[in-house]
TrEMBL record:
PANTHER family: GLUTAMATE DECARBOXYLASE 2, GLUTAMATE DECARBOXYLASE-RELATED. One of its GO terms (molecular function) is glutamate decarboxylase activity. It is a peripheral membrane protein; Lipid-anchor. GO terms for biological process: gamma-aminobutyrate shunt; gamma-aminobutyric acid biosynthetic process. InterPro entries: PyrdxlP-dep_de-COase, PyrdxlP-dep_Trfase, PyrdxlP-dep_Trfase_major, Pyridoxal-P_BS. This is Glutamate decarboxylase 2. Catalyzes the production of GABA. Belongs to the group II decarboxylase family. One of its GO terms (cellular component) is Golgi membrane. Its cofactor is pyridoxal 5'-phosphate.
Length: 573
């Protein structure tokens, strides 16, 4: 019978040894693992899981488990582990590879690091542990010695630093972490990230990253096919986040209209203006500032009359950025109507799908991006709704060769023209960066593991959870929705009104008090460590909660918990 995954070890016969514990809990799992895994690995994980107990309230008079002596393996029995022979307090980084006879010490040290990581991973999915062990910055600075020293630290100190770093890290994989658009932790993606760091290469040429370059080629082509471009033709690149992908698009649009700007600069072109939707991401203006176009040349529009006004005033419209999934509301611009306007005025159409682009993977929800195939470029961040480990952002471009012409500088020490292979696979000259991190392998390996249908199911589940939350609170006493109608994405925006302000007759006084509610509840969430949800004002609207769901580990029970926790933490306000 096929395994059901990481927790399956505790599924069949662990119940007899775990009392009333569910086999899906880390404690029950590790007890089963201790019996089934060879080499003492299961026992070591059980011992390591005790690290998480410091976050749980101790029972009065309870005995503390015995501490493992320094330098032992933690198996709690005699074994042949090499750990017992290695004393990290006597070792330094210079004792590891490439040091002579450093292989055993290196393997033992890295195994210790892996044990720390495995314990943290298991804790992160345990709902009994905190999402965050919050301390104020000055407190955290004083609790550990974070300063850099002239003298080297021992490997024992290095391991202590690793534990301390994870102890105070936010558990973004926790099922009740809803604070950002990027949440969750995929095990295959994590493994791919480890492999990528082990390979430690650069994406600029095929000769130093042959497999990774080919995987980027294959994956970008697949993503272009999903967008709807014929045979997946076009171009693209993985960049350091959606903001950079959006700036790439603006750069290409300007070069397409005025190629002379590459050599002669902005003085050679007329006054350019870009248009974007009212609630677009701030990176559009930031990109305009970085490219010398200026933030005042970015116009927020609702209709094509703004383009006509710009033309009359002597400006040259060159770029329209439509948003597929706005950051706060999760709204989708009408892409077909926008594409008609862009075609009418011959303007580059970009779709910022950093947040909403992944809905293209869902047959149930991809209609929200109807018209995306008519765009000249698309930003798509798999590190958000697809839960690929950070960072993983793609810019997809419909016109092949444009990126190369726009950005290439012919650096002869990297891009020699007499190499013995197809030079089109030397992708570095089409990028703004020289050194470029390998971001592709995480996405590619996860795609292989899940298949397109696996990503589709994951995305559909998150949208189902958001609809569940919306339906539970839309008519619930003490809640008001920020906007009418069911959300288009997983963003659910709402106010919680504590009993003390629900019936205030003075609207301004009520508004003033309501503005303070979300920040106080959020602070209490962090201090208790139970959950995390973002909040913000928007326009003339006072602070409200913006709940987003992208974590595949979240369940209906976690949504119920969130509602109850907001009410518990805010009832006295």
């Amino acid at each position: 019978m096929a395994s059901h995954g990481f927790w399956s070890l505790g599924g069949d016969n662990a119940g007899a040894n775990t009392g009333s514990q569910s086999p899906s809990t880390p404690r029950a799992w590790c007890q089963a693992a201790a019996q089934k895994l060879s080499g003492g690995i299961g026992s070591k994980l059980c011992a390591l899981l005790n690290v998480g107990e410091v976050e749980k309230p101790a029972e009065p008079g309870a005995k503390q488990p015995p501490q493992t002596a320094a330098g032992t393996c933690g198996c709690n029995k005699s074994c042949n582990c090499t750990k017992a022979a290695v004393v990290f307090s006597d070792l330094y980084s210079t004792d590891l590879l490439p040091a002579t006879d450093g292989d055993t010490k290196t393997m033992t040290f890295l195994q210790e690091v892996v044990d720390i990581l495995l314990a943290y991973i298991v804790e992160s999915f345990d709902r009994e542990t905190k999402v965050i062990d919050f301390h104020y910055p000055n407190e955290l600075l004083q609790m550990n010695n974070w300063e850099l020293q002239d003298e080297p630290a021992t490997l024992d100190d290095i391991l202590i630093s690793c534990r301390a770093t994870l102890k105070y890290a936010i558990k973004t994989a926790h099922p009740r972490y809803f604070n950002q658009l990027s949440t969750g932790l995929d095990m295959v993606g994590l493994a791919a990230d480890w492999l990528t760091s082990t390979a430690n290469t650069n994406m600029f040429t095929y000769e130093v990253a042959p497999v990774f370059v080919l995987l980027e080629y294959v994956t970008l082509k697949k993503m272009r096919e999903i967008i709807g471009w014929t045979d997946g033709r076009g171009d693209g690149i993985f960049s350091p986040g959606g903001a950079i992908s959006n700036m790439y698009a603006m750069l290409l649009a300007r070069f397409k209209m005025f190629p002379e700007v590459k050599e002669k600069g902005m003085s050679s072109v007329p006054r350019l203006v870009a248009f974007t939707s009212e609630h677009s991401h701030f990176s559009i203006k930031k990109g305009a500032a970085a490219l010398g176009i200026g933030t005042e040349s970015v116009i927020c529009i609702k209709a094509d009359e703004s383009i006509l006004v710009a033309l009359v005033q002597g400006f040259v419209p060159f770029f329209v950025s439509a948003t597929a999934g706005t950051t706060v509301y999760g709204a989708f611009d009408p892409l077909i109507a926008i594409s008609d306007i862009c075609k009418k005025y011959n303007i580059w159409m970009h779709v910022d799908g950093a947040w909403g682009g992944s809905l293209l993977m869902s047959r149930r929800h991809r209609w929200k991006l109807d018209g995306v195939e008519r765009a000249n470029s698309v930003t798509w961040n798999p590190h958000k709704m697809m839960s690929v480990p950070l960072q993983c952002s793609a810019l997809l471009v419909r016109e092949e060769g444009l990126m190369q012409n726009c950005n290439q500088m012919h650096a002869c020490y990297l891009f020699q023209q007499d190499k013995h292979y197809d030079l089109s696979y030397d992708t570095g000259d089409k990028a703004l960066q020289c050194g470029r991190h390998v971001d592709i392998f995480k996405l590619w390996l996860m795609w292989r593991a899940k298949g397109t249908i696996g990503f589709e199911a994951q995305i559909d589940k998150c949208l189902e959870l958001s609809e569940y939350l919306y339906n539970k609170i839309k008519d619930r006493e003490g809640y008001e929705m920020v906007f009418d109608g069911k959300p288009q994405h997983t963003n659910v925006c709402f106010w919680y009104l504590p009993p003390g302000i629900r019936y205030m007759e003075d609207k301004e006084e009520r508004k003033k008090h309501l503005h303070k509610v979300a920040p106080v509840i959020k602070a209490r969430m962090m201090e208790y460590g139970t959950t995390m949800v973002s909040y913000q004002p928007q326009g003339d609207k006072v602070n409200f909660f913006r709940m987003v769901i992208s974590n595949p580990a979240a369940t209906f029970e976690d949504i119920d918990f969130l509602i109850e926790e907001i009410e518990r933490l805010g009832q006295d306000l």
